[in-house]
Amino acid sequence: MAFSSSLPCEMNGHPMRSATARPPTLPLLSGQYPVEAAGVAVLQTSPYLSSVRPGTDPLLVYLSDTAGPGAPTGGPPPDGTAFGIVGLDRTIVWQDDPEILQLLRYAAGAPRPTGALAARFGALRVATVVGRGWLQDPAELCREYRLVSGEVEVTAHCNWGCLSCPVATDPKPRRTMPMPLFKEIIGKLAAAGVAYVTFQFFNEPTLDRYFSERLEVLAGHGMPLALYSNASALTAAKIADLKRTGVLKHLIVNIPSVNEAEFAELTGSRSYRHCLGNTEKALEAGLPVQVVVNGVGERLERNLAGVERHFTRLGAEVYPSLTCDRAGELGGEYAQGIRVEGRLSGCGWPVQHINVSVAGDLFLCCNDYYQREVFGHIGDGTIDELMSAERAVVLRRKVFGVDDAPDDFLCRRCHNQQSDFPGRDFRPIATFG
Known about the structure:
Layout: E1 4-5, E2 17-18, E3 42-45, E4 50-52, E5 83-86, E6 92-95, H1 98-106, E7 112-113, H2 114-121, H3 123-132, E8 135-136, E9 144-145, E10 149-152, H4 179-191, E11 196-198, H5 211-221, E12 225-229, H6 236-245, E13 248-254, H7 260-267, H8 272-284, E14 289-293, H9 297-311, E15 317-322, H10 349-352, E16 353-356, E17 361-363, E18 374-377, H11 383-387, H12 390-399, H13 429-432
Parallel strand pairs: 1-15, 10-11, 10-16, 11-12, 12-13, 13-14, 14-15
Antiparallel strand pairs: 2-9, 3-7, 3-8, 4-5, 5-6, 16-17, 17-18
Helix pairs in contact: 2-3, 4-5, 5-6
GO molecular function: catalytic activity; iron-sulfur cluster binding; metal ion binding
Domain Radical SAM core: 152-297
Protein name: Radical SAM/SPASM domain-containing protein
């Protein structure tokens, strides 16, 4: 059974944005970059790099609720290819010189003297890999990023208490993002080239009293919206506004069961008829609707079949959702009991998505329910200044295992850090070889 992620994780072909621009891909052994051009005494392999072998599964999967799972691009390997390297741009760069891979492996776990690398692997190899940005000044590691989406918490309130969500046991106080702050956020995200936004963070966006005004702001910037909703408050007026403004990328509705009693048990809500009825009206209006089914085990299998029978015939796409315990916040049937020891091994969230709280704070990721790992405020600068600021880089260095993460660091309890997680979008050379 193919799974989607339970929160927005879509990737696309948007160009990489970085505080440290890199030269374009160079021919191997081009000779354009003398070793001295590195300008540093030591070099280390970027933790964003994954190696793949021709003819094998690259083990890199980009999960998405809105576009399905994706894989690295790059075309078939030419004859004589020894290996490929995948970086932030998700493109496989095929190589015919196995010594390049040995060089990257040798410098992956710790900084290596530049002169010693040149003596061992050849100055031209080192120069070319430095030119590609595969070997870097250790101080620059994790400074790059490649934003795809902006996850904007327009309201900190949900009218459901799903068993698969921390809201069921510890709901947050109701708060609404002021419109001036929202306009600033969207303006900056648009200027940074972000591909789309969501209004979701453990909330129900259609309860937002500024919902229609926010759509107008998005329309003014040409910014698409992936709207994650339980559809209970998706009125005819809101459906009409979505249709009129044309900003909707996808409407993703959470329907864990089409059995009314089980629906109430799983959601803590009696809005079954509103949820299903409003979803059907959205389909009738021609909106692009996806229905995700949260759950685990046999119950998920059974409920998925029921939701598919009901909604596929109406034109909706239906997917199971890869429900997790939100880095240890959930118990019962959702508890995963994850504890990752040692250096962490990377995750796409801190480099590909930017999460903005209802107060305008920037924080680590979709599983940081209590927003503990804050690295800035939207008013502190441009998106590039915020994403390349030292506080952001320090967080990413922990996530990617460049630096040790504290014992209580959120990612140590997260399934995205497990080596066998089927949706890994990074397998850093230092930790996976």
